[in-house]
Amino acid sequence: MFIAPANTDLLLQEANNETLYDNLIVQLNKDFNLANEAIDFPKSITPEELKIQLHEKIYRLIQYKFAEYLNLLYIIDVSEEEIKKLDGSDLVILAEQVAFLILKREWQKVWFRNKYK
User: What are 8-32's pLDDT values in tens digits?
Assistant: First the structure.
């Protein structure tokens, strides 16, 4: 049974522990490119750097390309309910929370694909 980690650090640690971190990177790159938001995280990127770069990317999308941001959430299939629960008063915090929701959904895809292949 899939149980989502409580935060970004635990999620990335779990991905590393299950040797699925590379798959998570591939899935992120694939879905961002499907949404026409070119991003190319190298497989060698550290979890900490991934967290920072993803946060920055989401912040820039919210700030400058809101329609593309919404399209990305749709392509990745982030829960609309979870997005609506977030407090949008501070964009930096919002971007961090959305980055976690994106990672959580991508991790779920990778985890299920690995478990049921």
Answer: 999 999 999 999 999 999 999 999 9
Cβ contacts of 3 within 8 Å, gap of 6 or more: none
CB-CB contact of 37 with 69 (8 Å)? no
Q: What are the helix (H) ranges across 35-115?
A: 47-64, 66-76, 80-85, 91-115
* CA-angle at 70, arms to 66 and 74, nearest 5°: 165
Measured distance CA(13)–CA(84) in Å, rounded: 27
Model pTM score: 0.94
Q: Output b/e per residue, 89-109; b: 16+ Cβ within 10 A.
A: eeeeebbbbbbbbbbbbbbeb
Q: Nearest to residue 31, comparing CAs of 75, 80, 79, 77? A: 75
